[in-house]
Amino acid sequence: MEQFAILVCDDDREIVAALEIYLANEGYKVLKAFNGREALTILKNEHVDLIVLDIMMPEMDGIHATVKIREEKNIPIIMLSAKSEDSDKILGLNLGADDYITKPFNPLELIARVKAQLRRYATLGSREIKEHVYHSGGLVLDDQEKRVTVDEKPVNLTPIEYNILKLLLMNKGRVFSTDQIYEHVWQEPPVSSSNLVSVHIRHLREKIEVDPQNPMYLKVVWGLGYKIERVEK
To answer: What is the mean pLDDT of residues 146-167?
Structure first.
């Protein structure tokens, strides 16, 4: 059985030590960092499947670390935040984080979120998925190569963004509510899912649309949800 490697990055060493115990008990390899710079160094030298990343840290915080990570890697990022950091939490999601959990938290909840992210990430990278190509106009998703292009130019998506786009492209013209998108992509019942889905949708739109304010592909149907428009080349 493949052993996943989890990088835990938090300046609170007690939190890191506690998470190391819980994650190791689940069979994960645990790598530890105590600020964003240390996390980036580890990512350069070690294979990492998922990052648990605190927002507020010395030297380099989680927001700036996320920006750097997303320049090269699409591995899942779960952000840790205090309740007072809601604006930073939303900013982190906008910059490419996949999920967040608010301190103080139950370690078992974090483990559940780690497992959910790894399931999606593993499925995303699976070589067993049959070749399928979905497109609308110049927007193309190759599900065998896990590659997205717009007008033949590659687009770098996070696993969550990719799975949202795949769901909508596979069902061109069909409107999905935020709850439906959450259930399909996160594979769990929706609980206060609207803001989380909306943030990922906005970030996805910024990547695939020439003019995100007047989107060609990813449309909002007010009061109902989102859809991928059928666009002819």
So the answer is: 93
